[in-house]
Write a structure and sequence with these properties.
- The structure is a single chain.
- By secondary structure, this protein is of the alpha/beta class.
- The chain is 35% helix and 18% strand.
- The longest helix has 22 residues.
- Its cofactor is NAD(+).
- This is NAD-dependent dehydratase.
- It is found in: Golgi apparatus membrane; Golgi apparatus, Golgi stack membrane.
Length: 333
């Protein structure tokens, strides 16, 4: 799915493009022939995620924070600029709130001023600990304001409200609610369950499960997420489009741990800890809207995606030094 401006390839801004999903999106856009401007403050992203494209003439990197005024011309923009893993957004709580408010408003203002399209990456966290299952886009959520997750959950909810207000003022904006994307270029210490389990299994350390592991999640491989984001950008935005983007296959966390142990061939034990505060009990997206309007559904099975992610982390763990460096993995277009 290509984005065109007047029949020509577009100049596309990817905010947060040095992060996990953003770096995959940057590659896909470059393969399609677009000029790509990546804006990232590198608080949770890494230039090493983009090492293989830094020399491309149509790629430009700007180290900047979207919470500050930004003077960049673009035809379309994807906003993925926000810490997304619990350890990161809890450590950077105020910065997370600023990215979701000041940052989103800056991008929306720039898009409106330039007549550009914008896809804003929201999250399934806007549903909180849902009382409706699976979660359709019409569900308003069950979220608390006074929790360790609130900087992210409520920040993303307010970001959607900003999108709503700017859409009323003529901004061509779309909202993507992402559900548990995983794959290569996740940070090995980012605290999300897939990377935690894989790194622990490959290192022979216990896999930590909070509670009894009966809580469920739905995991979507990154190439499927990127494809959905591109299709969403190409969708006309007469009404404010809001889409769940995720894999409707639901899995218990304990079953994910056992699957990772099986696929890695690890004999690492599973270690149980008390339940995490405000941890949602169930998550599963209803994606009927995306199936109908975007002609999209996930194509990569969990087993296949995990095998590719395990291969990536095998390389990561072989890299010398104390800091994280991306392995020599190149995402397929």
């Amino acid at each position: 799915m290509k984005i065109r401006k007047g029949g020509e390839m577009a100049r596309i801004l990817v905010a947060g493009g040095a992060g996990f999903i953003g770096s995959h999106l940057v590659r896909r856009l470059l393969v399609q022939g677009h000029e790509v401007v990546c804006v990232d403050n590198l608080s949770t992203g890494f230039l090493s995620n983009l090492e293989d494209v830094l020399g491309f003439p149509q790629f430009h990197f700007v180290e900047a924070d979207i919470s500050e005024p930004l003077d960049v011309a673009f035809d379309a923009a994807f906003n993925l600029a926000c810490p997304a893993s619990p350890p990161h957004y809890q450590r950077l709580a105020l910065e997370t709130i600023e990215a979701c408010t000041l940052g989103v408003r800056n991008l929306l203002s720039a898009a409106l001023r330039q007549g550009a399209q914008l896809v804003h990456a929201s999250t399934s966290e806007v549903y909180g600990d849902p009382e409706v299952h699976p979660q359709p886009e019409q569900y308003h959520g069950n979220v608390g304001t006074l929790t360790e997750r609130a900087c992210y959950d409520e920040g993303k909810r307010l970001a959607e409200t900003l999108c709503y207000e700017y859409h009323k003022r003529g901004c061509s904006v779309r909202i993507a609610r992402l559900f548990n994307t995983y794959g290569p270029f996740m940070h090995r210490d980012d605290g999300r369950v897939v990377s935690n389990f894989i790194v622990s299994a490959l290192s022979g350390r216990p896999l930590t499960v909070y509670g009894d592991g009966s809580q469920t999640r739905s995991f979507c491989f990154v190439s499927d997420t990127v494809e959905a984001l591109l299709r969403l950008m190409a969708l006309p935005a007469v009404h404010l489009p809001v889409f769940n983007l995720g894999n409707p296959r639901e899995m218990k966390v304990i079953d994910l741990a056992r699957l990772v142990l099986h696929l890695t061939g690890s004999d690492a034990p599973i270690h149980f800890l008390p339940p995490a505060a405000a941890d949602p009990g169930r998550r599963r997206p209803c994606i009927e809207r995306a199936r109908r309007a975007l002609d999209w559904q996930p194509r990569v099975s969990l087993e296949t995606g995990l095998q590719e992610t395990i291969g990536y982390f095998r390389e990561v763990l072989q890299v010398a030094g104390d800091g994280f460096e991306a392995a020599s993995f190149v995402a397929c277009p």
